[in-house]
Amino acid sequence: MAQINPSILSADFARLADEAKAVDGADWLHVDVMDNHFVPNLTLGVPVVDALAKATDTPLDCHLMIEEPDRWAPQYVEAGAGSVTFHAEAAAAPVRLAREIRAKGARASMALKPATPVEPYEDLLPELDMLLVMTVEPGFGGQAFLDIMLPKIRRTRQLIEKHGLQLWLQVDGGVSASTIERCAEAGADVFVAGSAVYGAENPAAAVEALRAQAEEAAHRANGS
């Protein structure tokens, strides 16, 4: 089943609790944490995640676009995140970090920038609950989808199936009504959508429409 994770990067930061309620039907709420070092933007941190976790029943999917995730990621689990994603390019010890996140009770996820290949991390995949393939350069919302990432999504799905893993495959960046079907056909099953949800007149309806599109495309790709 396709999962839709609205990104609060595209929400009104002055009304985050209300914006979370506006997408009650979402599977997760995607929280972009940026430190102005790993990426050239600064967003929010542990205190906001802690407050948001108390304000919504939708689980939080925290994407850490930060340096030193080995040091900081466990704090996001303690703040209430149900899933924590660290970047392969930033983690000093990704296996140890994934195990620590899991041990603290959250799902462990690793993200790859567009230029980072998945193949060197094949042996690490069993340590993860989700792999995020970035379909834009991380750092800013509202960017155009990078079609050149579709083969990488397909290769990642092939690796997941090769090893028989129950690993979610997430895409983030430029996901919209015009791109989500291509992502689903390539093998993604978790979709981060920012402006496609929060820029819609009815964010909750946008979530349902995107999910339906993704599921229909996945059925077509699987011949069912």
TrEMBL record:
Its EC number is 5.1.3.1. SUPFAM superfamilies: Ribulose-phoshate binding barrel. Binds 1 divalent metal cation per subunit. A divalent metal cation binds at H30, D32, H63, D172. Keywords: Carbohydrate metabolism, Isomerase, Metal-binding. Substrate binds at S7, H63, G139, F140, G141, G142, D172, G173, G174, G194, S195. Its cofactor is Co(2+); a divalent metal cation; Fe(2+); Zn(2+). NCBIfam families: PRK05581.1-4, rpe. Catalyzes the reversible epimerization of D-ribulose 5-phosphate to D-xylulose 5-phosphate. This is Ribulose-phosphate 3-epimerase. The gene is rpe.
